[in-house]
């Protein structure tokens, strides 16, 4: 049997005529992507870069675990990823990586922006994804296309629709149960992933529980001075700056939902009142919340980590 004959035998034996030859299939808000990048990380050090802008930014991040499981700290909860599983991180969503069993690993990343259909992706967020064989073959195809002459117009015209198809496939076949929020772990005074994860988790909780940094330190069983010095040494940023950046990005994520009022955004991102929220946003980005929201919805705002 020739290869062509083998392929032809895969066609269905019967295809029903459409009821209307002038009105076909259409999707009004299907996802369209742009500005795509693909790269991989092969060591724990390269995966956990101590740069705040790498953990909170304006792009979607789609991760696939090829080798070595680990955990992603995502907005206050730890999401475990096994080999063959994936995770979608939304724009301005805080994320960091922990508990890699070995120094050597292989995780594949696709980062991109969405031109249309961002609401389509909301169901894929905050949960591990388990691609089926078709979705995994699309991952392989994307990596292969990127590894070829990606600068050619032909390759670019292939790779973006392939990612769009992968996202649609994941929505239909890749979702698994939402992870339960991780309960408070045993306190550990050790420097390293577990200590950092524990303190980050407490700082994120402090935004919504209205805790001071003193309360964060107390719950971590350490002094405030130790918290500040150790956290800045490990993360490269003071705890107060980390919390402010997290709170800002949490608000940005909510602002992209045009159904929420600014008062609701302020409340859900841990601010006691709209005036307090407005002053905070103005101080951090130099814009009123309404101006920031307009720029976010138009895709015009690019965040820069404050240097002060």
From TrEMBL:
GO terms for molecular function: DNA-binding transcription factor activity; sequence-specific DNA binding. It comes from the Bacteria. Gene3D superfamilies: Homeodomain-like. InterPro entries: AraC-bd (IPR003313), AraC_XylS_family_regulators (IPR050204), Homeodomain-like_sf (IPR009057), HTH-like (IPR037923), HTH_AraC (IPR018060), HTH_AraC-typ_CS (IPR018062). Residues 197-295 form the HTH araC/xylS-type domain. PROSITE patterns: HTH_ARAC_FAMILY_1, HTH_ARAC_FAMILY_2. Keywords: Activator, DNA-binding, Transcription, Transcription regulation. This is AraC family transcriptional regulator. It comes from Puniceicoccus vermicola.
């Amino acid at each position: 049997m020739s290869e062509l004959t083998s392929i032809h035998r895969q066609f269905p034996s019967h295809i029903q005529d459409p009821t209307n030859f002038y009105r076909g299939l259409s999707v009004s808000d299907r996802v369209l992507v742009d500005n795509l990048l693909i790269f991989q990380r092969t060591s724990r050090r390269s995966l956990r870069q101590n740069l705040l802008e790498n953990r909170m930014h304006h792009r979607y991040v789609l991760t696939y675990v090829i080798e070595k499981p680990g955990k992603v700290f995502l907005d206050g909860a730890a999401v475990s990823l096994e080999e063959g599983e994936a995770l979608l991180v939304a724009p301005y969503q805080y994320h960091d990586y922990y508990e890699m069993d070995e120094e050597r690993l292989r995780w594949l990343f696709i980062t991109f922006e969405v031109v249309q259909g961002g609401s389509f992706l909301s169901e894929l967020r905050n949960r591990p994804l388990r691609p089926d064989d078709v979705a995994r073959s699309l991952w392989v195809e994307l990596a292969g296309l990127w590894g070829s002459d990606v600068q050619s117009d032909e390759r670019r015209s292939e790779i973006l629709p392939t990612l769009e198809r992968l996202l649609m496939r994941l929505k239909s076949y890749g979702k698994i149960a939402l992870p339960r929020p991780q309960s408070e772990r045993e306190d550990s005074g050790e420097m390293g992933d577990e200590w950092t994860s524990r303190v980050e988790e407490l700082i994120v909780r402090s935004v919504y529980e209205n805790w001071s940094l003193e309360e964060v330190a107390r719950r971590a069983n350490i002094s405030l001075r130790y918290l500040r010095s150790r956290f800045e040494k490990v993360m490269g940023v003071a705890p107060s700056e980390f919390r402010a950046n997290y709170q800002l990005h949490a608000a940005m994520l909510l602002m992209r939902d045009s159904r929420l009022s600014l008062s609701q955004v302020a409340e859900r991102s841990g601010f006691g009142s709209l005036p307090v929220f407005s002053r905070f946003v103005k101080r951090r980005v130099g814009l009123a919340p309404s101006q920031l929201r307009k720029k976010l919805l138009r895709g015009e705002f690019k965040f820069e980590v404050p240097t002060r």
